[in-house]
Specification:
Length: 124
């Protein structure tokens, strides 16, 4: 799972096996270690009680929660992404985007990620 943070937006990209794991288990997470005992965990989890995408940050863990029905609709169809805005305070928002990770078009055959989704513009 790839994490991209830019300004007040958070984007997560999942490969095909990661989407399958998310569908089956209702949660997927990754960790990045910065030093001994220092890490950041980022995760996506499905919840039957969630009404929309939300995010929670606590003790070096970012968790994006997705309504279970939205997760299944996304995982089981050709839908590329799920998105929403998480209100922080007042009118400040954090934009959230979860999307399927597509293979790159600009690299040779050896650079393609076999776990990524086939790119819709790839003519092969």
């Amino acid at each position: 799972m790839k994490l991209r943070i830019q300004g007040n937006s958070l984007r997560l990209r999942l490969t095909q096996p990661e989407v399958d794991t998310f569908r089956a288990d209702g949660r997927i997470e990754e960790r990045i270690r910065f030093a001994p005992g220092v890490r950041l965990v980022y995760a996506i989890e499905a919840s039957p009680s969630a009404q929309h995408l939300t995010v929670h940050y606590d003790r070096n863990e970012i968790t994006v929660t997705v309504p279970e029905s939205t997760m299944h609709e996304w995982a089981d169809t050709e839908q590329v992404g799920m998105e929403g805005d998480h209100t922080i305070e007042g009118d400040a928002v954090l934009s959230l985007l979860i999307e399927k990770d597509f293979q790159c078009l600009h690299h040779g055959e050896d650079a393609k990620d076999p776990d990524a989704f086939p790119h819709p513009l790839d003519e092969e």
